[in-house]
Specification:
Elements (H helix, E strand, L loop, with lengths): L1 H20 L3 H5 L11 H20 L1 H8 L3 H12 L7 H24 L2 H25 L1 H4 E2 L2 E2 L6 H21 L4 H18 L2 H19 L5 H24 L1 H5 L8 H17 L18 H8 L9 H33 L4 H16 L12 H12 L9
Helix pairs in contact: 1-7, 3-6, 4-6, 5-16, 6-18, 7-9, 9-10, 9-11, 9-17, 11-12, 11-17, 14-15, 14-16, 16-17, 17-18
Length: 404
């Protein structure tokens, strides 16, 4: 009976992860339209169920959760800033609803971290992405109206960039297991290669660039960070510089690089969008417009941006700009401080030979940073990226007496 309950809980967890990642319901809710939001009533019901169950499971395991809770103090500070922003938000109703969703999403991340070890979490994510891959293939083959966006694959996701980002994550998880686990490496290689194929089929230039960089960085983090400082520092500086140069070149020249195979990078639209967003930030630079309010509220200047860029953008397509829009410089600084603190403490612990969990922390932080240069998933409610961000921090050993 106990084994059955454990298996059932794992299946429910995988289902919840898929809900946050993207489900086959997404294309149907949009009737096959690329990137257009449909009726989200059913999704809100499902998310509310996950919030409630997460809270109940946390109460049942309150001792473990209390220990995990204390590991991410800066996360709770950031959520506090989100909640406080309702006092100056241009639409406090929207902000309060979004904060409620963010807290619920964080509770699931807290449950995930307290219930499973880091490797168990990654295995469950890998299972979820494997199921998603099969579903994406089925949608493309049997329901191309839903599974394709032009000549690019989007599968069960609302946009090709989401598919690309999900399978960059799949590639990172698979390659992490290749580097850290000897058992069933062929399965990890299969997952890595399959993820790479899906990234290519998504025809997302930013995802392809992220796939290449993240693969290289896993090897760097796992091998190079254990070298002597006088070797490690120059190697890291060289690789970081080359990675930044490569990413900037790849993204800015993506049309020329990929145009020969018919890939639409859509980066030109973003290059017009970002200056317009910066103009809006300049009007409320310190506290912003309120968490989640700018793009949804009829009282905001988002319509001015849409009119300027001549396309219906749902966000800034840059997580850092959107965070600045919503929470001002205050929220952006709080997030960056937490990001840097956890990153550096993880480096310290890797140097102390506690590698696996903290290596993944560095890998995932790199993934979050790169993916948010062209998409928005920072501090986002109902987001798999936010769940994994908080669960990785809660799961790591970064708060056990690490001193830089």
């Amino acid at each position: 009976m106990r084994k059955f309950l454990i298996s059932a809980e794992q299946l429910v967890t995988i289902a919840f992860l898929m809900l946050y990642s993207g489900t086959p319901l997404d294309p149907f809710s949009m009737d096959g339209s690329v990137g257009q939001a449909g009726d989200r009533t059913l999704f809100r019901l499902f998310f509310t169920i996950t919030y409630t169950l997460s809270f109940l499971l946390i109460v049942l395991r309150w001792k473990k959760v209390t220990y995990a809770f204390s590991r991410g103090k800066l996360i709770w500070v950031l959520i506090g800033v989100c909640a406080l922003s309702s006092f100056w938000s241009i639409d406090s109703g929207i902000t309060i609803r979004r904060v409620f969703g963010l807290i619920g999403t964080t509770l699931f991340g807290l449950y995930f971290a307290s219930r499973y070890t880091l490797k168990q979490q990654l295995k469950l994510c890998a299972y979820m992405l494997a199921i998603s891959a099969v579903m994406c293939l089925a949608f493309v083959l049997f329901m191309p109206h839903y599974g394709l966006g032009g000549d690019a694959w989007r599968g069960i996701y609302p946009h090709k960039n989401v598919l690309g980002k999900r399978f960059v994550l799949g590639a990172a998880i698979s390659f992490f297991f290749i580097m850290t686990t000897r058992e069933y490496r062929w399965v990890s290689w299969l997952g890595y290669i399959t993820s790479g194929v899906f990234v290519l089929l998504s025809k997302s230039a930013s995802s392809l660039g992220n796939f290449i960089i993240v693969t290289g960085l896993i090897f760097i983090y796992y091998r190079i960070l254990q070298l002597k400082y006088k070797i490690m520092v120059p190697v890291l500086m060289l690789f970081s510089t080359l990675s930044i140069i490569f990413y900037v070149f790849f993204v800015t020249q993506a049309d020329a690089i990929l145009g020969s195979v018919g890939k639409d990078t859509t980066l030109t639209g973003r290059s017009n969008l970002w200056p317009a967003v910066v103009d809006m930030i300049a009007k409320k630079p310190w506290l912003g417009y309120g968490y989640g309010a700018f793009w949804e509220s009829p009282n905001s200047d988002s319509a001015t941006i849409i009119q300027t860029v001549q396309w219906n953008s749902p966000n800034a397509h840059n997580g850092f700009l959107d965070l600045w829009l919503g929470l001002g410089l205050l929220g952006l600084v709080v997030f960056i401080i937490g990001f840097i603190v956890y990153f550096l403490k993880a480096v310290y612990l890797i140097r102390s030979k506690e590698t696996d969990a903290n290596t993944w922390l560095l890998v995932y932080f790199t993934f979050i940073f790169l993916s948010n240069l062209t998409e928005t998933t920072l501090v986002d409610q109902n987001s798999l990226d936010w769940i994994l961000y908080v669960s990785t921090i809660f799961s790591s050993k970064i708060d056990r007496g690490a001193n830089l």
